[in-house]
Amino acid sequence: MTLDELETFLSIARLGGFTEASHALTRSQPAISRRIHQLEQSLDAELFERVGHRVSLTEAGKVLLPYAEAVLAAARDGERAVRDSRGAAGPQALKIAIVGTLADSHLVDALRAFEARHKAASVELTTATSREVSALVRNGDAHLGLRYFRDADPRLESKVLGVERLFVIVPAGHPVRQRRLRSLRRLEGERWLGFAAERGQPDSFGRLLERTLAEAGFADPRYTPVDSLTAQKRLVEAGLGVALMPKSSVREELRIGSLRAIEIQGLRLEQPVVAVRRRGGYESPLAAAFLLLLRDFTPDLHG
To answer: Which of 288, 277, 293, 299 is nearest to 116 (CA)?
Structure first.
C-alpha cells in the first residue's frame, strides 16, 4: 500500500469515477486503474463497484476511507511542518477549499488583505460543495475549508464565522408578488427544491428545510431533493418549484429578473458559515494568519 495508491483511491471516491480522477491527478486512466488494482490486490478486497458510468465504494472501500484520509493528511502535514521548520525557500501556498457561493465581497476583501500582508505567499482556491470541502480538509488537500453548517465529523474542528440569511426564491412570474410575507402559509402546496439531508449530519441545509416546513404546519409538504445548486435555480426559473437560498446564490438571477426573493418576516431563516480544519492536524502559520484575518472581515456575514 503506497501513498500514490491511497491518493488515487481517495480521488475516485470523492469524484465518483476513474476518468474524473485521472483528470484531477493528471494521469492516464490506465495508470489510475493499475494503482487501484494493486491496492485491491494488497488488501485482497474490491474497493469499488460500477453503477453505470459511475463508481461507488464497496463495504471494504467504506471501511478503508477514513484511514486513507488520515494517512494521506498526516503525510502532507509532516511535509508542511518540515518545510516550515526549515524556512523553505520560494513562495508558499495556502490551500483553501470553499463553497463557490461564499466567494462574496467579504472573502474577496479578506483575500486581498491577506495577500497584501503576505506578499511571498500565494492562495490556491478550490470550489466544492460543503461535503466535498470537508473531504478536502480531512485528507490534507486543503489547509482550511469554508462551508455551510458545522460538520459533525469528530476529525474536524468547526468555527462559525457568521450567518447568511435565507429567502424564499421564486420564479419571476410567481403569483405571490410581495417582497415580504409574515409566514410561509401563502406558499403551502408548493413543491420545495433543496439539498437532501446529509446522513450523520444533524445540522445541514436539508435538515433545516425539513424543520422549517414542519414548523410552518405543512402536514405533507412536497419536497424534491436536487443535488445541484445550478439545477435548483434552473428548475425554479422554469416554475417547477421554489427554494430557500441566500441572495449570494442567486445574485445574477435577481439582477436580470429571472428569479425573485421573498423575505419571511415570521421566521429567522439562516445558515451558518463555518471554517473547518482537521482536528489535531498541523496548522501552518499561513493558515493561522488567514483564519485570524477572516474573522475580522466576516464577523456576521449577512446576519
So the answer is: 293
pLDDT digits (tens, 9 = 90+) for 131-147: 889 988 988 888 899 99
What topology is assigned to 167-268 in CATH? Answer: D-Maltodextrin-Binding Protein; domain 2 (3.40.190)
**Alpha carbons 149 and 275: distance in angstroms, whole number:** 9
* Domain 1-69 bears CATH identifier 1.20.1250.20: no
* Least confident interval from 67-71, 160-164, 196-200: 196-200
Options 3.30.1440.10, 2.60.120.330, 3.40.1440.10, 3.40.190.10; CATH for 90-163+271-303 is 3.40.190.10
Which of the two residues, 198 and 241, has the higher pLDDT score?
Answer: 241
Q: Classify residue 300 as exposed, middle or buried by CB count within 10 Å of its CB (0-12, 13-18, 19+).
A: exposed
List the beta bridge partners of residue 11. none
Cα-only R_g, the chain: 21
